[in-house]
Protein backbone atom coordinates (compact mmCIF):
# COMPACT_ATOMS: atom_id res chain seq x y z
CA UNK A 1 0.00 0.00 0.00
CA UNK A 2 1.32 3.43 -0.94
CA UNK A 3 2.50 5.67 1.88
CA UNK A 4 -0.01 8.34 2.95
CA UNK A 5 1.97 11.54 3.48
CA UNK A 6 1.18 14.40 5.84
CA UNK A 7 0.94 16.88 2.96
CA UNK A 8 -1.79 14.76 1.35
CA UNK A 9 -4.10 14.77 4.40
CA UNK A 10 -7.32 16.70 3.84
CA UNK A 11 -10.14 17.73 6.15
CA UNK A 12 -12.31 14.73 7.14
CA UNK A 13 -9.90 12.21 5.64
CA UNK A 14 -9.46 8.83 7.26
CA UNK A 15 -5.78 8.52 8.11
CA UNK A 16 -4.17 5.10 8.13
CA UNK A 17 -0.40 5.40 7.80
CA UNK A 18 3.01 5.15 9.43
CA UNK A 19 4.63 8.30 10.83
CA UNK A 20 7.66 9.26 12.91
CA UNK A 21 6.86 10.60 16.40
CA UNK A 22 8.46 14.05 16.48
CA UNK A 23 7.04 15.05 19.88
CA UNK A 24 5.03 13.31 22.57
CA UNK A 25 3.47 15.25 25.45
CA UNK A 26 1.06 14.09 28.15
CA UNK A 27 -1.46 16.70 29.26
CA UNK A 28 -4.57 17.04 31.41
CA UNK A 29 -7.97 18.20 30.18
CA UNK A 30 -10.13 20.58 32.21
CA UNK A 31 -12.22 17.65 33.40
CA UNK A 32 -9.10 16.05 34.90
CA UNK A 33 -8.83 13.36 32.23
CA UNK A 34 -5.38 12.78 30.70
CA UNK A 35 -4.83 13.09 26.97
CA UNK A 36 -1.82 12.94 24.65
CA UNK A 37 -0.47 15.53 22.22
CA UNK A 38 1.66 14.08 19.42
CA UNK A 39 3.56 15.63 16.56
CA UNK A 40 3.62 13.14 13.70
CA UNK A 41 5.99 13.71 10.80
CA UNK A 42 7.27 12.44 7.50
CA UNK A 43 9.35 14.06 4.78
CA UNK A 44 6.38 16.15 3.58
CA UNK A 45 5.70 17.89 6.91
CA UNK A 46 4.19 17.28 10.33
CA UNK A 47 0.71 17.23 11.84
CA UNK A 48 -0.81 17.34 15.31
CA UNK A 49 -2.12 14.06 16.67
CA UNK A 50 -4.56 13.78 19.60
CA UNK A 51 -5.29 10.74 21.73
CA UNK A 52 -8.24 11.19 24.09
CA UNK A 53 -8.97 7.64 25.26
CA UNK A 54 -6.97 4.83 26.89
CA UNK A 55 -4.04 7.21 27.22
CA UNK A 56 -2.23 5.55 30.14
CA UNK A 57 -2.05 2.19 28.39
CA UNK A 58 -1.06 3.63 25.00
CA UNK A 59 1.65 5.79 26.59
CA UNK A 60 3.68 2.65 27.35
CA UNK A 61 3.67 1.38 23.78
CA UNK A 62 5.94 3.95 22.08
CA UNK A 63 8.28 6.89 22.65
CA UNK A 64 9.47 9.98 20.82
CA UNK A 65 11.48 9.08 17.68
CA UNK A 66 9.63 5.77 17.26
CA UNK A 67 7.78 4.88 14.08
CA UNK A 68 4.08 4.29 14.65
CA UNK A 69 1.14 3.00 12.62
CA UNK A 70 -1.89 5.17 13.30
CA UNK A 71 -5.54 5.18 12.36
CA UNK A 72 -7.70 8.24 12.88
CA UNK A 73 -9.80 11.06 11.49
CA UNK A 74 -8.41 14.35 10.18
CA UNK A 75 -10.04 17.71 10.82
CA UNK A 76 -9.12 21.39 10.63
CA UNK A 77 -9.14 23.11 14.02
CA UNK A 78 -8.22 26.78 14.43
CA UNK A 79 -6.94 26.82 10.84
CA UNK A 80 -4.58 23.88 11.49
CA UNK A 81 -4.87 20.23 10.53
CA UNK A 82 -5.01 17.66 13.29
CA UNK A 83 -5.70 13.94 13.46
CA UNK A 84 -7.74 12.41 16.29
CA UNK A 85 -6.31 8.93 16.72
CA UNK A 86 -8.36 5.83 17.40
CA UNK A 87 -5.45 3.37 17.16
CA UNK A 88 -1.66 3.56 17.42
CA UNK A 89 1.05 0.88 17.40
CA UNK A 90 4.85 0.93 17.27
CA UNK A 91 6.49 -0.16 14.00
CA UNK A 92 10.06 -1.50 13.82
CA UNK A 93 12.61 0.46 11.83
CA UNK A 94 13.28 -2.40 9.42
CA UNK A 95 9.69 -2.16 8.21
CA UNK A 96 9.94 1.42 6.98
CA UNK A 97 11.78 3.35 4.29
CA UNK A 98 13.75 5.98 6.22
CA UNK A 99 13.76 8.28 3.18
CA UNK A 100 9.99 8.70 3.59
CA UNK A 101 10.24 10.29 7.02
CA UNK A 102 12.92 12.98 7.15
CA UNK A 103 12.35 16.17 5.10
CA UNK A 104 15.06 17.08 2.61
CA UNK A 105 16.08 20.31 0.94
CA UNK A 106 14.14 21.00 -2.26
CA UNK A 107 17.52 21.58 -3.89
CA UNK A 108 19.44 18.63 -5.31
CA UNK A 109 22.15 17.52 -2.91
CA UNK A 110 24.76 16.78 -5.58
CA UNK A 111 24.13 20.13 -7.26
CA UNK A 112 24.67 21.93 -3.96
CA UNK A 113 27.93 20.04 -3.35
CA UNK A 114 29.14 21.08 -6.80
CA UNK A 115 28.17 24.68 -6.09
CA UNK A 116 30.04 24.56 -2.77
CA UNK A 117 33.18 23.26 -4.52
CA UNK A 118 32.92 26.02 -7.14
CA UNK A 119 32.54 28.71 -4.45
CA UNK A 120 35.64 27.47 -2.63
CA UNK A 121 37.62 27.21 -5.88
CA UNK A 122 36.84 30.88 -6.62
CA UNK A 123 38.18 32.21 -3.28
CA UNK A 124 41.12 34.51 -4.02
CA UNK A 125 42.78 34.72 -0.61
CA UNK A 126 45.00 31.64 -0.44
CA UNK A 127 44.80 31.39 3.37
CA UNK A 128 41.00 31.39 3.41
CA UNK A 129 40.91 29.06 0.42
CA UNK A 130 43.27 26.64 2.18
CA UNK A 131 41.03 26.73 5.26
CA UNK A 132 37.93 25.81 3.27
CA UNK A 133 39.79 23.15 1.30
CA UNK A 134 40.93 21.60 4.58
CA UNK A 135 37.32 21.45 5.78
CA UNK A 136 36.07 19.92 2.51
CA UNK A 137 38.89 17.35 2.44
CA UNK A 138 37.57 15.93 5.73
CA UNK A 139 34.98 13.41 4.48
CA UNK A 140 33.33 12.96 7.88
CA UNK A 141 32.93 16.73 8.28
CA UNK A 142 31.66 17.18 4.72
CA UNK A 143 29.03 14.47 5.17
CA UNK A 144 27.66 16.20 8.28
CA UNK A 145 27.87 19.69 6.74
CA UNK A 146 25.89 18.57 3.68
CA UNK A 147 23.28 16.64 5.70
CA UNK A 148 22.56 18.87 8.72
CA UNK A 149 19.43 21.01 8.94
CA UNK A 150 19.90 24.71 9.64
CA UNK A 151 17.56 24.72 12.64
CA UNK A 152 15.11 22.63 14.63
CA UNK A 153 11.96 24.53 13.90
CA UNK A 154 12.42 28.05 12.49
CA UNK A 155 14.07 27.97 9.07
CA UNK A 156 15.60 25.49 6.59
CA UNK A 157 14.24 22.68 8.77
CA UNK A 158 15.25 19.77 6.59
CA UNK A 159 18.26 17.65 5.70
CA UNK A 160 20.62 19.76 3.64
CA UNK A 161 19.18 22.94 5.15
CA UNK A 162 22.52 24.11 6.56
CA UNK A 163 24.25 23.84 3.19
CA UNK A 164 21.31 25.43 1.33
CA UNK A 165 21.20 28.35 3.79
CA UNK A 166 24.98 28.85 3.64
CA UNK A 167 25.01 28.87 -0.17
CA UNK A 168 22.09 31.33 -0.18
CA UNK A 169 24.16 33.67 1.97
CA UNK A 170 27.06 33.39 -0.47
CA UNK A 171 24.75 34.51 -3.30
CA UNK A 172 23.54 37.43 -1.18
CA UNK A 173 27.13 38.37 -0.34
CA UNK A 174 28.09 38.43 -4.01
CA UNK A 175 25.11 40.68 -4.78
CA UNK A 176 25.93 43.11 -1.97
CA UNK A 177 29.71 43.46 -2.36
CA UNK A 178 29.60 45.37 -5.71
CA UNK A 179 27.44 48.05 -4.08
CA UNK A 180 30.09 49.11 -1.56
CA UNK A 181 33.80 49.82 -1.97
CA UNK A 182 36.46 48.13 0.12
CA UNK A 183 34.51 45.04 1.24
CA UNK A 184 36.57 41.89 1.81
CA UNK A 185 34.52 39.52 -0.35
CA UNK A 186 36.62 36.43 0.40
CA UNK A 187 36.26 36.96 4.14
CA UNK A 188 32.50 37.46 3.78
CA UNK A 189 32.10 34.35 1.63
CA UNK A 190 34.00 32.17 4.10
CA UNK A 191 32.05 33.74 6.98
CA UNK A 192 28.81 32.86 5.16
CA UNK A 193 29.95 29.26 4.68
CA UNK A 194 31.12 28.80 8.28
CA UNK A 195 28.84 31.03 10.37
CA UNK A 196 26.57 28.10 11.37
CA UNK A 197 29.12 25.29 11.02
CA UNK A 198 28.71 24.41 14.71
CA UNK A 199 25.23 23.10 13.95
CA UNK A 200 26.75 19.86 12.67
CA UNK A 201 27.33 18.98 16.34
CA UNK A 202 24.69 21.18 17.96
CA UNK A 203 21.86 19.18 16.43
CA UNK A 204 20.93 15.52 16.04
CA UNK A 205 19.21 14.65 12.78
CA UNK A 206 19.11 10.87 12.43
CA UNK A 207 15.47 11.01 13.56
CA UNK A 208 13.27 13.98 14.51
CA UNK A 209 15.55 17.03 14.70
CA UNK A 210 16.66 17.92 18.20
CA UNK A 211 19.54 19.43 20.14
CA UNK A 212 22.46 17.34 21.36
CA UNK A 213 23.88 17.68 24.87
CA UNK A 214 26.76 19.70 23.40
CA UNK A 215 24.24 21.86 21.59
CA UNK A 216 22.35 22.64 24.78
CA UNK A 217 25.47 23.19 26.88
CA UNK A 218 27.65 25.06 24.37
CA UNK A 219 25.56 26.15 21.37
CA UNK A 220 26.54 26.27 17.72
CA UNK A 221 28.46 29.55 17.99
CA UNK A 222 30.95 28.20 20.54
CA UNK A 223 31.19 24.86 18.74
CA UNK A 224 31.73 26.63 15.42
CA UNK A 225 34.57 28.82 16.70
CA UNK A 226 36.25 25.73 18.15
CA UNK A 227 36.00 23.93 14.80
CA UNK A 228 37.49 26.89 12.94
CA UNK A 229 40.26 27.40 15.49
CA UNK A 230 41.22 23.71 15.39
CA UNK A 231 41.42 23.78 11.59
CA UNK A 232 43.42 27.03 11.48
CA UNK A 233 46.01 25.57 13.90
CA UNK A 234 46.74 22.94 11.25
CA UNK A 235 47.54 25.59 8.59
CA UNK A 236 51.09 27.00 8.95
CA UNK A 237 51.35 30.74 8.47
CA UNK A 238 47.64 31.56 8.72
CA UNK A 239 47.57 35.30 9.59
CA UNK A 240 46.57 35.99 13.20
CA UNK A 241 44.48 39.06 12.30
CA UNK A 242 42.61 37.20 9.56
CA UNK A 243 41.85 34.42 12.05
CA UNK A 244 40.48 36.95 14.54
CA UNK A 245 38.33 38.68 11.89
CA UNK A 246 36.82 35.38 10.77
CA UNK A 247 36.10 34.14 14.29
CA UNK A 248 34.58 37.53 15.13
CA UNK A 249 32.06 36.99 12.33
CA UNK A 250 30.99 33.68 13.85
CA UNK A 251 30.82 35.17 17.35
CA UNK A 252 28.75 38.18 16.27
CA UNK A 253 26.39 36.86 13.58
CA UNK A 254 23.37 36.94 15.93
CA UNK A 255 23.85 40.68 16.23
CA UNK A 256 23.15 41.54 19.87
CA UNK A 257 24.03 40.15 23.29
CA UNK A 258 20.39 39.64 24.20
CA UNK A 259 19.91 37.56 21.05
CA UNK A 260 22.56 35.04 22.06
CA UNK A 261 25.52 36.74 20.39
CA UNK A 262 28.74 36.69 22.46
CA UNK A 263 29.90 39.77 20.54
CA UNK A 264 28.15 42.48 18.54
CA UNK A 265 29.35 43.01 14.96
CA UNK A 266 32.29 45.44 14.98
CA UNK A 267 33.46 45.21 11.38
CA UNK A 268 31.62 46.05 8.18
CA UNK A 269 31.83 42.42 7.02
CA UNK A 270 30.43 41.09 10.31
CA UNK A 271 27.57 43.61 10.13
CA UNK A 272 26.69 42.58 6.58
CA UNK A 273 26.74 38.90 7.54
CA UNK A 274 24.45 39.53 10.52
CA UNK A 275 21.78 41.26 8.41
CA UNK A 276 21.96 38.88 5.44
CA UNK A 277 21.79 35.84 7.71
CA UNK A 278 18.76 37.24 9.51
CA UNK A 279 17.02 38.11 6.23
CA UNK A 280 17.55 34.73 4.57
CA UNK A 281 16.43 32.92 7.72
CA UNK A 282 13.27 34.98 8.07
CA UNK A 283 12.26 34.70 4.43
CA UNK A 284 12.64 30.93 4.50
CA UNK A 285 10.79 30.65 7.80
CA UNK A 286 7.85 32.78 6.68
CA UNK A 287 7.52 30.99 3.35
CA UNK A 288 7.57 27.63 5.12
CA UNK A 289 4.87 28.85 7.51
CA UNK A 290 2.69 29.86 4.55
CA UNK A 291 3.37 26.67 2.57
CA UNK A 292 2.44 24.29 5.39
CA UNK A 293 -1.15 25.58 5.49
CA UNK A 294 -2.35 23.69 2.46
CA UNK A 295 -5.49 22.68 4.39
CA UNK A 296 -6.67 26.27 4.73
CA UNK A 297 -8.33 28.34 1.98
CA UNK A 298 -8.00 31.58 3.95
CA UNK A 299 -5.91 34.43 2.54
CA UNK A 300 -4.22 34.62 5.94
CA UNK A 301 -2.05 32.14 7.78
CA UNK A 302 -2.63 30.95 11.29
CA UNK A 303 -0.96 32.99 14.01
CA UNK A 304 2.83 32.63 14.08
CA UNK A 305 3.73 32.34 17.75
CA UNK A 306 7.30 33.64 17.64
CA UNK A 307 6.62 36.43 15.13
CA UNK A 308 3.39 37.25 16.98
CA UNK A 309 1.42 37.96 13.80
CA UNK A 310 -0.54 36.50 10.90
CA UNK A 311 0.87 36.57 7.37
CA UNK A 312 -1.02 37.43 4.19
CA UNK A 313 -0.54 34.63 1.67
CA UNK A 314 -1.07 36.60 -1.55
CA UNK A 315 1.43 38.97 -3.18
CA UNK A 316 -0.42 40.23 -6.27
CA UNK A 317 1.44 38.16 -8.84
CA UNK A 318 -0.41 37.44 -12.08
CA UNK A 319 -1.84 33.95 -12.32
CA UNK A 320 -1.98 33.58 -8.55
CA UNK A 321 -4.70 31.14 -7.49
CA UNK A 322 -7.65 32.95 -5.94
CA UNK A 323 -8.00 31.90 -2.33
CA UNK A 324 -11.44 31.59 -0.87
CA UNK A 325 -12.52 32.01 2.71
CA UNK A 326 -12.70 34.69 5.31
CA UNK A 327 -10.89 37.92 4.50
CA UNK A 328 -10.50 38.75 8.16
CA UNK A 329 -8.59 36.54 10.55
CA UNK A 330 -10.27 35.95 13.86
CA UNK A 331 -8.06 36.84 16.82
CA UNK A 332 -6.60 34.09 18.95
CA UNK A 333 -8.72 33.19 21.97
CA UNK A 334 -7.31 34.77 25.10
CA UNK A 335 -7.81 34.21 28.79
CA UNK A 336 -9.90 36.61 30.85
CA UNK A 337 -6.79 38.12 32.41
CA UNK A 338 -3.74 38.58 30.20
CA UNK A 339 -0.26 38.81 31.75
CA UNK A 340 1.69 42.00 31.33
CA UNK A 341 3.87 41.55 28.23
CA UNK A 342 7.61 41.40 28.72
CA UNK A 343 9.66 44.30 27.31
CA UNK A 344 10.76 42.21 24.32
CA UNK A 345 7.12 41.45 23.50
CA UNK A 346 6.23 45.14 23.55
CA UNK A 347 9.00 45.84 21.06
CA UNK A 348 7.89 43.04 18.72
CA UNK A 349 4.31 44.30 18.56
CA UNK A 350 5.46 47.59 17.03
CA UNK A 351 6.30 45.93 13.72
CA UNK A 352 8.74 43.38 12.41
CA UNK A 353 10.84 42.27 15.34
CA UNK A 354 14.44 43.39 15.31
CA UNK A 355 15.30 40.12 16.98
CA UNK A 356 17.23 37.85 14.61
CA UNK A 357 15.43 34.64 13.74
CA UNK A 358 18.44 32.67 14.92
CA UNK A 359 17.85 34.04 18.42
CA UNK A 360 14.19 33.05 18.29
CA UNK A 361 15.05 29.47 17.38
CA UNK A 362 17.19 29.25 20.51
CA UNK A 363 13.96 29.49 22.54
CA UNK A 364 13.37 25.85 21.56
CA UNK A 365 16.37 24.70 23.55
CA UNK A 366 14.71 24.31 26.93
Describe the structure.
The chain contains 13 helices and seven strands. β4 (67-77) and β5 (80-91) form a beta hairpin. The chain is α+β, with helices and mostly antiparallel strands. The two termini are 39 Å apart. The chain folds into two domains: 6-100, Nucleic acid-binding proteins (OB fold (Dihydrolipoamide Acetyltransferase, E2P), Beta Barrel); 109-286, Hypothetical protein af1432, CATH 1.10.3210. It is 37% helix and 16% strand. A five-stranded mixed β-barrel has the order 1-2-3-5-4. The protein has a two-stranded antiparallel ribbon with strand order 6-7.
Main attributes?
about 375 residues, Hypothetical protein af1432, alpha+beta, 2 domains, single chain, 5-stranded mixed barrel, OB fold (Dihydrolipoamide Acetyltransferase, E2P)
Structural class: alpha+beta
* Order of H and E elements: EEEHEEHHHHHHEEHHHHHH
Number of strands: 7
* Euclidean distance between termini CA atoms: 39 Å
Rg, rounded, reads: 22 Å
The largest sheet is: 5 strands, mixed, barrel
Mean pLDDT: 86
Number of domains: 2
β-strand percent reads 15-25%
Helix content: 25-40%
Class of the largest domain, according to the CATH hierarchy?
Mainly Alpha
What's the CATH topology name of the largest domain?
Answer: Hypothetical protein af1432
Strand order of the biggest β-sheet: 1-2-3-5-4
Q: Can you tell me the overall shape?
A: elongated
Amino acid sequence: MAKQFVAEIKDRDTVNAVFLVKDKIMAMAKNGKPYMNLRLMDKSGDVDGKIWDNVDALDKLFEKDDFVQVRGKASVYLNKMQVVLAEIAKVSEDQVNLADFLPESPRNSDAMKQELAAVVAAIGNHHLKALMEAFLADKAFLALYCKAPAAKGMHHVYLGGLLEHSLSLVKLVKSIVPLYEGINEDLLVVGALLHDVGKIHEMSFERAFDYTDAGKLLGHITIGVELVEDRIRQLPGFPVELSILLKHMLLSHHGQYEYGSPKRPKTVEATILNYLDDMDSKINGIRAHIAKENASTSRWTAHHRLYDRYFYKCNGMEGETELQGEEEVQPEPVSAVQPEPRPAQRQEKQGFSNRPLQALENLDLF
